[in-house]
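Researcher: Please predict.
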Amino acid sequence: MLSPTAKDTIFREGTAQLYRFRPEGGKAKEGLPLLLIPSLINRWYVLDLREKASFAGAMVRAGIDTYCLDWGIPEDEDRYLTWEHVLARLGRAVRMVQKHTGAPKVGILGYCMGGTLSTIWTAQNPDKVAALINLAGPIDFSQAGLLGHMVQPAWFDVGAIAAAGNVSPSQMQSGFVAMRPTLQMAKWVGLAARAGDKDAREAFDAMEEWSNDNVPFPAAAYETYIRELYQGNKLVAGTHYAAGKRVDLKNITCPVLTIIAERDTICPPAAATALNENCGSSDKSVIAVPGGHVGAVIGSKASSVMYPKTAAWLREKLAAPSRGMVAQAAV
């Protein structure tokens, strides 16, 4: 069963939805809430994939009041959705969590591109974030590895691609396949070797369903993402602007945790840990997890290594004597 953790939709905007996972016992323990921000181009439920591989479920069991932004599936007209529009939607999700809980601040965990977006938003709104977790999200794109090399401007015309409309899942998947062309064969050989393992088959089936359920990338946002970050590396340079405001990573002073996957080729560890090196926080930590970009979240070591370590960090950073009330201006 995909997405096994019970949840409710508390907000909708276009095709996007904001979920609140139901606390055990019906009431969350005291402390500030956590908002999960998945990648814009992958379905959110990788964070709640199945019973034995659910980051969201682990956070709920740890007593953390957990929310998740489902970006939804862009329609053809969403080709005009800009990078600023995406960040504004993230901001509205934060405000809805504040309104729903009465919390003055929230914790944010961004996965993959969600980590990049969460970092940018936090840098521009540091007073609203109690703790920031970057889960395999690139920050220093000069360290982006083969994926960064593939989109260099000398041979990759991002404007021409975006001019055709939303970038389709098949277009993006072809790039990932080109990075590891033998992966498709290898995974089936690996499954055959574990054919008698029921749990391994269930994990494989869930992973296959999620990995083939990708969504388009809104063209306008895609062009900014590639041109400004992958090609220009403007985030760590301090020259990236969103909504006319410069993104200064030094503005991030809340506790910061970066989670890296040791064999990550999509977001190599150095691309992610650049957050710790460039932010203004004095409370910075790194957790290294075995596996690759997706395996870090749903792999065999995720539930025994990454989930409990992350939950322990969050319980400490989000602890609060009272939720209090949010100022009217915040909502």
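Model: The domain at 7-330 is CATH 3.40.50.1820 (Rossmann fold).
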